[in-house]
């Protein structure tokens, strides 16, 4: 149920024990008739668990008046469903939602617009839906048009608008209806850079006036910059409600761990596939060479010696390469290199560059390149490994043999994070960091 008055005056939104179930589509459902559904009672809203998909479960939080509250999580985690429930567009399966004051929502691109009528007419329709009388809409019309930047298109039917123009008009109407609570989904990402900056400035003014914002976004920087607290949803469950830094760090850590598992699974799948000849390609990996020496495995190890493909910036890392020589060799070089997914070289070295002069290599060998503190910036990286002759002739070159994910507690620019410290002298003060 959705009520119009909160129990506590300081609260703009209260969500208690919220659950949302959707009916699972079963084989043959599309062939059922309305009569059969009524006879079976399947339109009454009483769903058995085995018939339902749980979109949200166990959601509890409050949002204070004047607070900017962010919602983050992966695709399918229930973020948009939560906003639709708070907006009253959907009915909860269980639990209670209490909202105070007038609500304006920007949830779906083009929602609330009639495609066949003009932008001007849609402004009046949307304004009326949001509770403004016609005279008040007329008074604010010029401001809405100016903010949207669509003056010359207002008499055009909105079906001719681009996605960015939809966003411009929708946000302009929503923000000029003086809502007490503004719900914003990812639609702001569709607008251009200049308009996005204009929206952020207007949201900051909106918050300064004591209004409430609930923002869903995949832009973690935007959420961090605007929000006072953040809810992290994961597969419809509430993982954490905390300060932006704490919630976003926890979310990034979980994503990085998941990516590391995917990297390891992909590596194992490549290794299990039949070995191809020179120039063969397996997945994203490209491999070539004479095979006079062959790389049989490559692993990334953490400080504890465990195979791991997620590292924190500055953590120790070891690249372990196992190589087998088909016949004894006296000319050989072992190498490793790190690059970004787009091919920008980050770091690389080999035994020849570091002054090792080959003498003999036969049978099997294990080569380890250990970095006591691998200070890569946060992001995805690929690893190339090779064994070749000193003149560069490849015995076995494996490009993109590994993929790893790096996270960091603090931001920066570039691909390298050197160890560093700040020092301040004089009248410089900093607010205490959030715990």
Quick rundown:
This protein is an alpha/beta fold and 435 residues long. The chain has helices spanning 34-40, 79-87, 119-129, 134-148, 163-175, 193-208, 220-226, 244-272, and strands spanning 2-3, 11-23, 52-64, 68-72, 94-99, 103-106, 181-184, 212-216, 229-234, 237-242, 281-282, 285-288, 293-301, 310-312, 317-329, 333-339, 345-350, 361-371, 379-388, 394-407. The strands form four sheets. Strands 11, 12, 14, 16, 17, 19 and 20 form a seven-stranded mixed β-sheet that branches. The chain has a six-stranded mixed β-sheet with strand order 6-7-8-4-9-10, sandwiched between helices. The chain has a four-stranded mixed β-sheet with strand order 1-5-2-3, covered by helices on one side.
Label this structure with key terms:
Rossmann fold, Coagulation Factor XIII, Chain A, domain 1, seven-stranded mixed β-sheet
Structural overview:
The chain has 435 residues and is α/β, with parallel strands linked by helices. The protein has two domains: 2-252, Rossmann fold, CATH 3.40.50; 286-407, Coagulation Factor XIII, Chain A, domain 1 (Distorted Sandwich), CATH 2.70.50. 25% of the residues lie in helices and 33% in strands. Strands 11, 12, 14, 16, 17, 19 and 20 form a seven-stranded mixed β-sheet that branches. A six-stranded mixed β-sheet has the order 6-7-8-4-9-10, sandwiched between helices. The protein has a four-stranded mixed β-sheet with strand order 1-5-2-3, with helices on one face. Helix 3 (119-129) packs across helix 4. It is elongated and about 90 Å long.
Helix content: 10-25%
Give the terminus-to-terminus CA distance. Answer: 35 Å
Flag low-confidence runs: 4-9, 276-283
Rg (C-alpha, Å): 29 Å
């Amino acid at each position: 149920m959705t009520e119009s008055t909160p129990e506590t005056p300081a609260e703009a939104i209260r969500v208690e024990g919220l659950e949302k179930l959707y009916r699972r589509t079963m084989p043959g459902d599309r062939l059922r008739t309305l009569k059969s559904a009524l006879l079976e009672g399947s339109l009454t809203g009483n769903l058995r668990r085995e018939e339902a998909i749980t979109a949200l479960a166990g959601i509890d939080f409050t949002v204070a008046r004047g607070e900017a509250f962010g919602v983050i999580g992966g695709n399918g985690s229930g973020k948009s469903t939560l906003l639709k429930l708070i907006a009253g567009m959907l009915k909860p399966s269980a639990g209670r939602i209490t909202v105070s004051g007038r609500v304006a929502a920007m949830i779906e691109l083009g929602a609330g617009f009639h495609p066949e009528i003009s932008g001007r007419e849609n402004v009046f329709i949307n304004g009326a839906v949001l509770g403004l009388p016609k005279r008040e809409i007329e008074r604010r019309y010029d401001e809405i048009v100016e903010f949207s930047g669509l003056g010359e298109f207002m008499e055009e039917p909105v079906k001719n608008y681009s996605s960015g123009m939809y966003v411009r008009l929708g946000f302009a109407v929503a923000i000029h209806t003086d809502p007490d609570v503004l719900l914003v989904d990812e639609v702001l990402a569709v607008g251009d850079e200049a308009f996005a900056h204009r929206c952020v400035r207007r949201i900051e003014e909106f918050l300064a006036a004591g209004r409430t914002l609930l923002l869903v976004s995949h832009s973690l920087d935007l959420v961090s910059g605007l929000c006072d607290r953040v809810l992290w949803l994961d597969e419809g469950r509430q993982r954490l409600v905390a300060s932006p830094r704490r919630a976003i760090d926890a979310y990034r850590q979980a994503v990085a761990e998941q990516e590391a598992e995917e990297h390891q699974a992909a590596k194992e799948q490549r290794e299990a596939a039949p070995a191809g000849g020179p120039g063969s390609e397996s997945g994203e990996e490209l491999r070539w060479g004479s095979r006079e020496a062959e790389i049989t495995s490559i692993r990334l190890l953490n400080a504890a010696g465990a195979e791991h493909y997620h590292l924190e910036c500055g953590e120790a890392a070891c690249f372990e390469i196992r190589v087998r020589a088909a016949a004894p060799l006296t000319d050989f070089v072992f190498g490793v290199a790190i690059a970004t997914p787009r091919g920008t070289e980050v770091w690389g070295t080999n035994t020849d560059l570091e002054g090792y002069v080959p003498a003999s290599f036969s049978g099997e060998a294990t080569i380890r390149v250990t970095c006591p503190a691998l200070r890569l910036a946060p992001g995805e990286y690929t690893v190339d490994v090779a064994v070749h002759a000193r003149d560069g002739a490849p015995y076995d070159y494996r490009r993109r043999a590994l993929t790893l994910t790096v996270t960091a507690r603090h931001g920066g620019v570039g691909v390298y994070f050197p160890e560093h410290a700040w020092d301040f002298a004089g009248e410089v003060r900093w607010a205490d960091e959030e715990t």
